[in-house]
Backbone:
């Protein structure tokens, strides 16, 4: 009986060591590879504390860089106010002084900080513009595609145009 125990203990010990070695050799690289995928750019746009979202990026730079990124796609945008909103996704939303234009960039919340989403090294923004809509005509993203939601006030206003702008790298730097 003692001989049987002495023969099986080394076998169990070798199996345990082999199993650990297999896990280290074959499972760790897969986990490391998944963690290296870029999902956002490195510039922190803001922070979240519960449901309170605060923009920490310099708003003067934000205005200049965002308007420069959009360029000729939305002339005279003149973004005046910024906010972080949540509606199924996180967005940085900019609104023009007269309220006729709204633009948005999708954000990712990571470790309490907001970052611009990185899709294959590209960032994109959507601008919605209407000369009659006071509620609605706002940028949203669904299944990876930007759209402008329907104008709900005043009734009868159907004038809402969408402009998408994409470019390599982040919008803010």
Residues:
């Amino acid at each position: 009986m003692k001989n049987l125990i002495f023969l099986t203990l080394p076998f169990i010990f070798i199996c345990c060591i082999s199993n650990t070695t297999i896990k280290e050799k074959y499972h760790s690289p897969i986990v490391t590879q998944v963690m290296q995928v870029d999902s956002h750019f490195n510039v922190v746009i803001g922070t979240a504390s519960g449901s309170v979202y605060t923009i920490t990026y310099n708003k003067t730079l934000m205005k200049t860089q965002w308007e420069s990124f959009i360029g000729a796609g939305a002339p005279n945008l003149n973004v005046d106010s910024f906010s972080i909103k949540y509606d199924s996704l996180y967005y940085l939303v900019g609104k023009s002084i007269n309220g006729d234009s709204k633009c948005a960039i999708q954000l990712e919340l990571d470790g309490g900080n907001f970052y611009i989403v990185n899709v294959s090294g590209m960032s994109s923004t959507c601008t919605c513009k209407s000369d009659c809509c006071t509620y609605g005509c706002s940028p949203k993203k669904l299944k990876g595609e930007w759209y402008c939601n329907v104008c709900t006030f005043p009734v009868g206003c159907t004038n809402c145009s969408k402009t998408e702008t994409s470019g390599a790298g982040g919008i803010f730097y």
